[in-house]
Amino acid sequence: MKPNIQTLRELRESGYTPKPIREELRANLIAMLDRREPLFPEVVGYGDTVIPQVQRAVLAGHSMNLLGLRGQAKTRMARGLVDLLDEWVPVVPGSVLNEDPMAPLLRSTAEQLHDDHPIGWMHRSERYVEKLATPDVSVADLIGDVDPIKAANLGLDYSDERVIAYGLIPRSHRCIFAINELPDLQPRIQVALFNILQEGDIQIRGFQMRLALDLQFVFTANPEDYTSRGAIITPLKDRIQSQILTHYPRSIEDSLAITAQEARLTAEQHRRVVVSPMVAELVERVALAARESEYIDAGSGVSARLSITAYELLVAAAELRSHLTGDAPTTTRITDLLGIIPAITGKVELVYEGEQEGPEGVAVHLMNQAFRALFAERFPDPELVRRGKMEDVYAEVVAHFNDDGLELLRMDSDAEHAAKLNAVAGLSALVDRYLPTDDAEARRGAMEFALHGMAAHNLLGKDVIDGEVSFSDLMGNLFSADDED
């Protein structure tokens, strides 16, 4: 609730004393910890790694640099620090520097204040300032510059504080100030931050001003070893007190939780499409495969946005089929994963080998890697079967494709899809043995997955043409490919 204090006299009588922002953050964090409330409740997977480091940095009163690859929630955490600020703080109305009425920065402001001077209140949501570092950022943008017109009109010297057009950093006094992608800031601009971080003063056009600026600096950056765009210069890195390394989700469960939280689905999509847990997991495994792929530049990273946009396209593919076939609700299928290819090709940076394969070829390869990984966890290892070290549980299914093929079309109705899968000899028994379920939709999804997994392990042949999938005998598929060549 906004305090009902309107004058400087009332503020003094209330017992208010100015508090540095770092003490403010520290006190509110301690109160949050005592109440057992989580910091960054929407950030998943950092509870035992990154978040404790941020908490320690806040308790130590440190500026911090969140260092990690793209899509690792760095900006979200920087913005989330606002929750540690006091809800309202008093300000001098009209002050471009958010000055505290009890501790004004400028001499001109202090001269104007009196007991009946009105005061304003600034909400914590207004106390976060963010700047994206780009090569065109200037010292004037961040620190400020002399306004010669104002100096001439007022007849003042250029060193007078009243003729300065303050930059973004002074105007962020008493705020959290974040610079995203710090390495993109030109080295000469990074030099301008030295004194602000260490001594708190600024220098404009050769005129040094002692301003007791009170800011909480938060920087974000990609690892400098992995970017050709620039680097954080060593003296600046030395002045940033805590460097905190972020990371991608370390478990499938965390990945699934992040995607489910961030995916933007409409109410209609929620009603019309049921997302199979198996297909949702395959989406996450595609992202995991991309982060380990020899075709993709590991230094550029594979953002969590790949999984999120892929999930949205997966649902959209099922929704499109639902409208065309009239099946509502419908359940996502393995073949719907072909619809996520645009989410992959636009979010990975290919190395030379990947360029040779082509973006779509790499996307299909990643999906096959996901099929292989999940299949190995759900079914017996096909390699052990080949070596004769265990029962050949796939023989009946493979034998079926010696005589018959199978085409799974994107726009097959649910009934057509089920009929085609049920017609494959031995497939139903294989799934009942290793993925038993009473849910008919889950069982159908498991049957389709088994075919894709067997193809990924070279037990069956598989062709993908214009978004349609066909399965056949592996040897027949190879001979057919040779004939076409």
Spans of 5+ residues with little confidence (pLDDT < 50)? 479-485
Number of strands: 16
Taking the sheet with the most strands, its summary is: 5 strands, parallel
Number of structural domains:
3
Span between N and C termini? 75 Å
Average pLDDT taken over every residue: 90
What labels describe this entry?
single chain; 485 residues; alpha/beta; Rossmann fold; Helicase, Ruva Protein, domain 3; 3 domains; 5-stranded parallel β-sheet; 3-stranded antiparallel β-sheet; 16 strands; 45% helix; disordered C terminus
Summarize the structure.
The protein has helices at about 10-15, 20-35, 50-60, 75-80, 105-110, 140, 150-155, 185-190, 195-200, 235-240, 250-260, 265-270, 275-290, 305-325, 340-345, 350-355, 360-380, 380-385, 395-405, 415-420, 425-435, 440-455, 475-485, and strands spanning about 65, 90, 120-125, 130, 145, 165, 175-180, 200-205, 205-210, 215-220, 240-245, 275, 330, 405-410, 460-465, 470. With about 475 residues, the chain is of the alpha/beta class.
